[in-house]
Amino acid sequence: MRAAIAIDASSTVPLHRQIYEAWRRGILTGRFRQGDRVPSSRELAKALRVSRSTVTQAYDQLFAEGYLQTSHGSGTFVRGDLHEHSLPAPAAPKASDAAPAIRLSRFGARLQRDFVYAPQPADHICFSRWTPDVQRFPISLWRKLIARHLKAPTSAMLDYARQSQGYEPLREQIAAYVSRSRAVHCTRDQIVVLNGSQQALELCARLLCDPGDVVAFEDPGYLGTRRIFEAEGLALRPARVDEQGIVIDAIAKRARLVYVTPSHQFPTGVAMSLARRLELLAWARKQNAVIIEDDYDSEYRYSGSPLPALQGLAQDSPVIYCGTFSKVMFPALRIGYAVLPEALVAPFRRAKWLSDRSTPAIEQAALADFIAEGHLERHIRRMRRLYGERRAVLVESLERHFGSDIAILGEAAGMHLAVRTRDPGFEQRAKRNKVQIVSTRDYYLGTPRADEFLLGFSALSERSIREGVRRLSRTTE
User: Fold this and answer.
1) What is the CATH number of domain 15-85?
2) Which residue in 100, 261, 303, 471 could disulfide with 412, CB within 3.0 to 4.6 Å?
């Protein structure tokens, strides 16, 4: 007999799987009809020139899924009750054919772009990232802390979390840490542990606003938050930023939320003045609005102590304080937190449970020890000193090569530098000389500036920083 199916011996798909798929597809499309006799395993193995066990393995799967049946003394046949569920036979494809459109929700339709980083070629100096220098993180210590909780894990560590709000010892440590380092007023019961600050921002948008609600947004402002709010269908209204932070008179009067980065405004780097902070709090109380304080990298301030948080200025402040450990430890550690007014704790806890039940418990336990034993603050002190030295090298190099043609914006803080340049060839020369920089154009909701750029320095060596600035200033090959 001739084989009813064909197989490809050069394919990476196992032979038994090819046989199974060929019979299954043939039955569902009507090529093999109900009651058709199926060759015995011996016959088909001989026709296909494969071992009988290969055919038997395929047939066993077809029997198990109900495609075949046996008749005592007669053989094996295609089952007789599948015709109503047959798939249409595939038509020959046409060049004009397109896959049928699948309708997305309004949320899905608003997700127009992927969120990807540009590649970083080995021959480029990349000022385009402002991430921690992960090579300096004490990974051997972190491994020991993880192992400590894996050696004798409790059932609670391995089961579904009883509290989606977060591991209680970690919430205690976070409350103590933000109190002494950022003057945040809170108890452990006001903290919800989250998968990074991005989850905190998404829950803020979902729980506090409906599609179409007005949100005041720093202009320029952080693109990651802006994309979250736009995806939720919120109406973003730009609020101008000056040398003291967000301009209160520029905030839309109907705003339900105000998003700010007061300690180190992203991307300009300015710090919100005390007078402006008090004015913002008064505005929020009057308008019954909520302030989202994104404190993404305030630990890295190189001219004095970190600034106190906006949240701590008044105990009744309508502020949600969002923090993360990704910037001070390593980005893959997706642990962040929100410090909430007491009235918002319960809805945030419930929303967190619906979203993903809880943040991984082993990492939470290791992080609680990392903070309690003083490792976090020692690591921050080391990295603050290192990043401060790298920033100083970047500033000195820019001033030496560009002089008055470049202006450095903002405070001596953070992991990136914002600059304005009078040099019209700055961006093109960077591309030509294999230096990656970031324009601030995409960070503006309103009219962007063409002369503003961001230079990340935290993950670059001093040698690379000097070489990068030298390339930026080089006008000939």
Assistant:
1) 1.10.10.10
2) 303
